[in-house]
User: What shape does this take?
Amino acid sequence: MNIQKKTQYLFEDLDLFFTRVPVLVYHHVTADGSTQDSSGCSITVSQFEQQMRFLYNRGYQSLTLMELLDPLLQGAPHQKKAFALTFDDGFSDFYTHAHPILRCYGFNATVFLVTDLLGRQSDWDGEKGACMLTWENIDKLSANGISFGSHTCTHPYLHQLSDEQVWHELSTSKKCLEEKLHSEISFIAYPFGESSPKIRRMAKDVGYKAAFGVMTGKPGRYNWWRSECGSRDTLRTFSFKLTWLYSFFQKTRGWVREETPLGRFLRKIKHKWLLSSAL
Assistant: This one.
């Protein structure tokens, strides 16, 4: 790989690449003693409370995604001890378990919703049968300062869809949320954290101000990498995820995966496996 291409990768969206504000992503927050999923994406109430107490006791400030984005657009520095919280999918346990803890510590969050399944149960690979938030839940959460974004209509693997289907997933979910919540929906999180350059361009064209993934694809404003938090995280692991060193580790790992022959080969194998498992 030539130096120009390396530089283009490392310095695309320069301010975003070097921002030290961690964006954390959660999925399930489950009752203590409940069975944890094998993927490690769920976290118990006690673990979540411990992590939020850790942030609160050390003086961290909770930013909304707009508060995170605006300084980058304006070239202003972020607070040194700040973070942003996101929750993917819109499971009902956010309402029952996570939100009371956030209120206790005065933290906000953005929940990314799968619009076609609200009030029903999840039906995608790895997380079938979980109860989703209802519109009544969402109205109450919105009144208490919780923000919302799109997680598409049906939670598909976007890269397996046609351009028309991707556009529908991105645009229809945005329109649905805006009509229900009477406010602009500025952010989307890609299902399974997966996107492509074309999908990221489409997210921009639909009208989102930024989009979020999880350490796959080239990082940038329309593929903002987040740190996944789950049941395997000790408090020491969690605290490491707040540091610039972890952010650097993420970016370096991503460069190897996306920009080296071995990394691209392994990604291709993963996509083939995902496609075969969905059939």
User: Anything to note?
Assistant: Residues 43 and 231 are 5 Å apart (CA to CA). The chain has eleven helices and eleven strands. The radius of gyration is 18 Å. The first helix runs from residue 3 to 11.
